[in-house]
Amino acid sequence: MSRYRGPRFKKIRRLGALPGLTNKRPKAGSDLRNQSRSGKKSQYRIRLEEKQKLRFHYGLTERQLLKYVRIAGKARGSTGQVLLQLLEMRLDNILFRLAQSEGNYAEALQNYYEAMRLEIDPYDRSYILYNIGLIHTSNGEHTKALEYYFRALERNPFLPQAFNNMAVIFLSSGVGSDPKDKQAILQGDSEIAEAWFDQAAEYWKQAIALTPGLCVCVVRKEEDSMIIRSPEPEVKILVDKDPVKTSFEEWAKPGHFSRTIAKGPDTTTWIWNLHADAHDFDSHTSDLEEISRKVFSAHFGQLSIIFLWLSGMYFHGARFSNYEAWLSDPTHIGPSAQVIWRASGITNELQLYCTAIGALVFAALMLFADMFSDTAIQLQPVFAQWIQNTHALAPGATAPGATASTSLTWGGGDLVAVGGKVALLPIPLGTADFLVHHIHAFTIHVTVLILLKGVLFARSSRLIPDKANLGFRFPCDGPGRGGTCQVSAWDHVFLGLFWMYNSISVVIFHFSWKMQSDVWGSISDQGVVTHITGGNFAQSSITINGWLRDFLWAQASQDPTTRRIWFGIATAHDFESHDDITEERLYQNIFASHFGQLAIIFLWTSGNLFHVAWQGNFESWVQDPLHVRPIAHAIWDPHFGQPAVEAFTRGVLLAHGLATLTTEMETERFVVQKCRISSESSFVRTLRRLGPLFTGAGTAILTLLGGFHPQTQSLWLTDMAHHHLAIAFIFLVAGHMYRTNFGIGHSIKDLLDAHVPPGGRLGRGHKGLYDTINNSLHFQLGLALASLGVITSLVAQHMYSLPAYAFIAQDFTTQAALYTHHQYIAGFIMTGAFAHGAIFFIRDYNPEQNEDNVLARMLDHKEAIISHLSWASLFLGFHTLGLYVHNDVMLAFGTPEKQILIEPIFAQWIQSAHGKTSYGFDVLLSSTSGPAFTAGRSIWLPGWLNAVNENTNSLFLTIGPGDFLVHHAIALGLHTTTLILVKGALDARGSKLMPDKKDFGYSFPCDGPGRGGTCDISAWDAFYLAVFWMLNTIGWVTFYWHWKHITLWQGNVSQFNESSTYLMGWLRDYLWLNSSQLINGYNPFGMNSLSVWAWMFLFGHLVWATGFMFLISWRGYWQELIETLAWAHERTPLANLIRWRDKPVALSIVQARLVGLAHFSDVNHYGKEKFDSEGEEEAKIGTEISFDSSILKKEISKVPSLSDKWEIYGKLQSPPRNSAPTRLHRRCFSTGRPRANYRDFGLSGHILREMVHACLLPGATRSSW
């Protein structure tokens, strides 16, 4: 931000110059830091300090000071003297010199009386008299104040402030009465005051018409008078009916929310600032209500993008996937893009198209909700007022409830003032309008022509008389009629949509430019009407070049550098940093942005569904799912038979309404009905609706079985129903613990204020904490993100250990993708919590309000907190890495028995207490003779112990020394990430090195040479560094989870237990295990199905390296590189034809780091997902080819070399796709002649016998070998 909002006098005192408002002087430094510095100042420091003195003394921004310097340089005379005169002539400085701003009224009156002796304009003299009246009003001299107000009105009758102040004097104390006498109002003075208010209100109405943006509230009823009442304790719901200032003209300007950014770009930094400040609502305004509105508005914009994205995805799938072919033959045709689409209930491609179009519509709705969510209610009275004043009301009348409206005759038309804007009616029309209307008519006629042709020729045409037999949509008619394509009725609708969009664009462009040019505008005090675009529509819109130059490209042609692009994106949603932002508008923008987010989600959903509808084989697959392979809808079918579909759609469930499934109780009822439908196997429609639900045995729908279903390997549906019912009752009770609008329960504010900390070690405890949280959106968002991040990580853990969906435990790829996805999301959310916590400490933290409470105590003890976290991180790092290195050395020396292997006895004891018997502990549920074990077998959770002790599921994985080491490695990552984030948040306000850090904001690259070039210490830099540690930590978590489960799925858990205790085992048996095929994909011999993934792997590392280049390189490198590229482009003929217009400016350090961080994060996540997907393929192959462990060990023991042992071990246990056993298995499957083929693969007879025993060679019997 260019405008400084922090403590001004501290900075002036530090610079050594004071404006005279205090007698304090800077003390001579006596500490060691000041003594160690040299007393000699450099020329750069002297110039910088003098410039800073001017800025803070006169309250200037950097850009304003440069402007005054340029003006002074062009003027005649001494530049310094002219600059001083210009600065002293500023209005705020004049008020300061007049001594009125500091409350020295005697000196101010003396200055005003001296000014009255000068020959000045009566208009200026009226304001001097008005200010004298203000001083008398402040001193309580109401009679003198009224005298000067009268004298001011004699010289300037259009001074509504004077009328207003006079009315306040009459109403508050009365003329001629003691100001302290409250009974003076009851002696008739209120009627005089109301008369003055009426007169003031009349002038206020004219002022609003002539001065846009002014507003006034006229109080007419005694019950709505200005008497101050004490606030009522009950909750009040307030509705704001004041119009919120908004206009398309303002939205069309990039960076309109900031005066600095709105002036236009000079360098590319403008682009970044536009991105950075757009959503920084706190810097826009301090009004919490407006901040909340901005946040609300921003959500609509986000939703719009999500809906748009969804629509695009569905359209993409519907248009380009092999949906229909896959539906027709799902067992032989592989799906292209529909593997996650089945559970949406889509049964045909038309539904996919409808979903895509619906998401597009929702995206548009969310976009308009983003723009108008905070103003839609207020806009309606404005337009109604406009219509009433121009059509229904008499001249000079005002619409009821109108804030400002007048109708004047001006220039042959009606000049209407609406909400601070001026409109000229009727709208003049000319040649340009004639042309545009005919172009619009042309597009409408073409659209109707295409659509009408499609309708009339839907049944038949001369080319295809039997078109009705082909249906509404068919791609081509085949070669019989010469390959006739794009003649179906659907193709006409498809083409008509594009013409419809063109027609609507013509209307919108015409309306927008016409209104800005000839209708919308403002009127000056002299009566001059000025339109937004200066009336250029009539002259420019008659040519295409005029449309491009003066309307479509008008804004882009004003910016001379590339930074206009960056600023336009950077600060668009940083609502808090926008100028003239208020709390009310901030909340509106935030609320609207949520709808934008929903629009994007719906659009994305629509795109995905449309994608399947256009190119998927959904209908064919639904008709014959056993022989048709699905293409793009693996999760779209509802997995219900026809009776269940009938029950869910024809009266059983929808009888009481699906819309009520919004609470835990309703979710439980939903699950219970599914249980009852499935358990009773009766799908006859009944008129009793939910009556059977409340009869019969409750154990049929609410159970406590525990464990997993033996066929689906998922939780029992009746157990889940029971669980949701219990949670519903808990929530019902907990929901009344705290007070809401109904006044039931405890007040959180009272609980926090009444809290007495134990032993007094937390100071004042939670005093002031409620107001701090309630008045800070960043504090609230930080708490919400922290909670949601922890919950998301727990969801990742529970989704694989307690699978709720049928058969999902057998879908390894889905399990790995869900776990990885949720862990990465949890990591980003939790780091975001600390980031907003740091912003809270910088922007919203009030030391006086939180004096000596838990927040203040935490800041006071931040050194102890940070040092303890640092110690814990160092301990974990050195000891964990030391154990890994020791074990690696022991393996390298051939003495694996000397490894340090630590059993996780505490974790094993916890698992044993829950029923796992493999560890040998005799405690609680693992004790077969204990009462808990006996009760668990007979009374409750009979399936729990079976599930816990089965080694084929992920409920309680068996853990050992490898798990102990990797968990401590993960703890190292978590503690280091937390250390960086906590240090950044607690030091956000200041540190010993930089005590005034809060004055520099959340992100700043360096502090300049004043403190020796202090860099990389902002709160943003801590967040930036912590993201890398977070990504590393999540990588360790997902690697551990993935390898552990691959060995579990392959039935080879011992491989993880043996190899995970040293680093080379991790590299050899997991991280580098499948790299050979990717490496071979780069050479000419690797031109196979894996070559695409190999090149994608290479491309991912290229982007990753590019991200590191951004992270490491500083500004000078990028500036030189961009200047070189610009010079090269300017020398090319193509660039000269296009006109190289923008001046390229390099990224700042913070901007370059942000680009690098985005590259690093995206490629890191992409690479992990790619790695997991390959691992699942290997896991599937491993499950297909498995051997008896005793025979396997016997075969390996015959081989003397350790490397050969590993080769055979790999071949037998999990051969890759092109290994000899796999290829033999495939050839035997296709030919049915295994004995004639086995010699081609060079396999030993023992391996072949084991493959026959495992029934992997079709057509072969054990006796034949």
Question: Could you walk me through the main structural features you see in this protein, from its secondary elements to its overall organization?
Answer:
- Residues 20-44 are annotated as: Disordered.
- Residues 3-88 form the Small ribosomal subunit protein uS4 N-terminal domain.
- The protein has a five-stranded antiparallel beta sheet.
- Helix 9 runs antiparallel to helix 10 (160-172), helix 16 (288-320) runs antiparallel to helix 18 (349-372) and helix 34 runs antiparallel to helix 41 (1019-1049).
- Among the domains are: 8-92, Ribosomal protein S4/S9, N-terminal domain (Ribosomal Protein S4 Delta 41, Chain A, domain 1, Orthogonal Bundle), CATH 1.10.1050; 104-221, Tetratricopeptide repeat domain (Serine Threonine Protein Phosphatase 5, Tetratricopeptide repeat, Alpha Horseshoe), CATH 1.25.40; 639-746, no CATH class; 905-951, no CATH class; 1185-1265.
- The chain is globular and about 115 Å long.
- The protein is mainly alpha-helical.
- The longest helix has 36 residues, at 1149-1184.
- The protein contains 52 helices and five strands.
